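Notes continue from the previous slide.

Worked example: a multi-chain complex. Inputs as given:
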Amino acid sequence: MMRPMEEIIQLLQKNALMPRDEMARLLNKPKEEVEAVIAELESDGVILGYRPVLNREKWATNTVTAVIEVKITPERDGGFDRIASRIAKFEEVQSCYLVSGGYDLLIVVEAPNLRAAAGFVAEKLSTIEAVQSTATHFRLKTYKENGTFHHLDVATERLAVTP
Amino acid sequence: MSISIAAHIRDIPRSGIRDFFEIVQTMEDVVSLGIGEPDFATPWHIREAAIYALERGRTGYTSNLGLPRLRRSISSYVQQHFGVRYEPLSEVLVTVGVSEAIDLALRAILNPGDGVLYHEPCYVSYAPTIVMARGEPQVVQTRDEDAFALRAEDLEKAIRPNTRVLMLNFPTNPTGATMSPEELEKIAAVCVKHDLIVLSDEIYSELTFDGGKHTSIVAFPGMKERTVFLHGLSKAFAMTGWRIGFACAPTVLIEAMMKIHQYSILCASIMGQDAAIEALERGESSVAAMRSEYQMRRNYIVSSLNDMGLECRSPRGSFYVFPKIAPTGLSSREFSMGLLNSKKVAVVPGTAFGPCGEGHVRCSFATGLDQIKTAMVRMAEYCSELPSTK
């Protein structure tokens, strides 16, 4: 069986705005307990924040998103960490991961338009001394993002009464 | 010409659920808690495996007994989850849903007039299937005070000289009743003492809540040799439309059931069988995710019903609750019709599952939470407007 903390996180991941009394009903626990667990998760830094899931076809449609593969030369003392955090601090960078394989950092960059995105890669990213090379892939369409489908209809037909 | 229908078929009453369904169909904007199937589509990895099988051109007949690989999967699944080992090649038969398997078992076992006991309230098809197999339906009623579990002494009292078979279904549709291993052991002892064959319909066995584990009667000493273990993929794997069930039983019974199956059905569809292999071999986490979702909905629906003054037990299995509506002063049917007409919420009258379901209605929580929430709001309004409750 799942622990209450896991169950609550699972519900928050599906809908962080779910009323806490509804959550309490679903988990068969007092509302106060649910609120206390969430408060603890927040203060412990397990939950870092909540944000809306935006449909890219309907909001900020001109925004450009790029996935960039970055090869870097690790430093003798800091390894990848110092360079990675230096890159991550740019406000254009939405996500930044150290990965295994043919390159080192995978970053997701968002910019208001193509020119701005290109400018970030050419002027900011590539000019960092430890960066050996970059490969930029622009997002064309979103099918699924963080578990949410953006383009697929998943409705099914059911009879109104069955045995 | 005037067509005369065989007397034993003509005399079978229409299903109470079907009656109700025809009224519901004529209405719009109905929120239905009358649905006995998962609202989830079959997990994607299972659908994807079926698509792959189609792409490879797997579209033919299979062995009458079912694909050997599926029978091996069934055998190890049953061993792992129920603790009983069946020989894949001679003790397992793949059928078109559990319904077909029940029909085959009854037709294979019964001589005309043989008695078949089953516990009520129960799934609507049991009595008609017995009649169609020329058996005599014999009812043992279960009680609200026992949470609709079956008492061994009630069972023993109901046994008659012609009784040959006992049908069991735990967790139960429509009551959500479950049996503890201790209670089940007593039932097993009665079956051995009276030399009954047991048809155990285990279709809801994966859907048990609060960490409880389902025990099948087949696991008790002396039972495997007299039990037809019936199970399928419809409920736990959300695969109702694939129509795949199976029977596990001693070879002599499987052989007899296979005779009927091969001449009337030939084999279950290969698409469904291929999907079933994927489900049984790799479906564990999908089942767990759905179970946890059902459990939360159960908690929600049970507390809402109790809040509106309808006494409702929290079932330990199945995806049904069976709240008591008797204190409203209405019959099950009046309550359900009134609720449908005034609030457009469909629940099934308890009497559709046998006379002792009177005073109850069946609500399914295999329905999305949003719909359950709407239904609960409307039902609470309905109850507060009834003269006899406040």
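Summary box: Residues 4-43 of chain A form one domain. DSSP finds five helices and six strands in chain A.
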